[in-house]
Amino acid sequence: MREVGTDGTRNPMSLDFEAGLARAQATLGIIPQEACDEILKHVKFDQFDIEKLKTQTERIGYPVLPVV
Length: 68
Prior knowledge:
Elements: H1 7-27, H2 33-42, H3 50-60, H4 64-67
Helix pairs in contact: 1-2
């Protein structure tokens, strides 16, 4: 369970969740497919500067805002 709470696990899982949410919303017509496609381009964990994300998360207190 400790591993689930680490940055290396939590952050990719959060991005996977966002990708799934975008797909579901596009399927239901809540967002346009083009918006979904754009979101999916940017939810890849390897595209993030991990040190910058860590610093901003510590400053703000949670990881969502720095990702956005």
